[in-house]
């Protein structure tokens, strides 16, 4: 591993540094957790926490505006690694849990009737992308992850025969976007509450969905399903791309499968001569601040790419 690139990563925000120490340097857990704790008091994490309103919300809404609302701000803090015991995050998770639950067990904040912080959502049907992303946040920040079990049941019931999930309820084919959100949510819930055979089986079927598509190819033509899948962004929000997919596979220490080779080759082709990966895409919307400009070397993309390669080469 290029020592100069690692040193550059360690010059970044605590949200980067703790993951580099854990995933690339195999630092002792005490050192990793000490670095992780700084997210709440320094840099990007502190800046986001400072924007929270007294009622636990961000941006004046639960799900909108994107990306400054409560939902997407807490999602970003989770991906950064804000520790589970953070009281501000817990308050936001409680708010999302109470206001977003639907009768089918999942979450939804979209409705023809505007949903505000003060008024809970109505209706029976959840939205599966929201439920998947929300499960990860609730499993991480609620005082008891098992309280989010109804979201797990909702996802398991909605899995399609091809192993994927799709927020378009009448679709017969999985969506890359929805499937990665569901898998990440089930992963986080299993880490917090303990895996069950049903969840493990659903995750294995979700993995097969991606493997059958070589992570970014059409199941019908074998061509790239969407060009945006090959351009790496951070934050990802609800969008899928190949780096997000590979980062998920490494996070669950999935076994080596040669159907991932196309994605690994794509990842390698994006590496610059300086050993770094650039920010290639930004998803439009409101932001409290820009962490990394488009077109410039990206610590987020570089550290995620390096740990994906490390996982792949170890299998």
Task: Give the termini distance in whole angstroms.
Answer: 17 Å
> Outline, from the CA principal axes?
globular
Into which percentage range does the β-strand content fall? under 5%
Count of alpha/pi helices: 13
Low-pLDDT runs: 112-122
Tell me roughly what share of residues is in helical segments: 40-55%
* Count of folded domains: 3
CATH class of the largest domain: Mainly Alpha
Give the integer mean of the pLDDT values.
95
CATH fold assignment of the largest domain? Glycosyltransferase
What's the total number of strands?
0
**Reported CATH architecture of the largest domain:** Alpha/alpha barrel
Secondary-structure element order, N to C: HHHHHHHHHHHHH
Quick one: biggest sheet? none
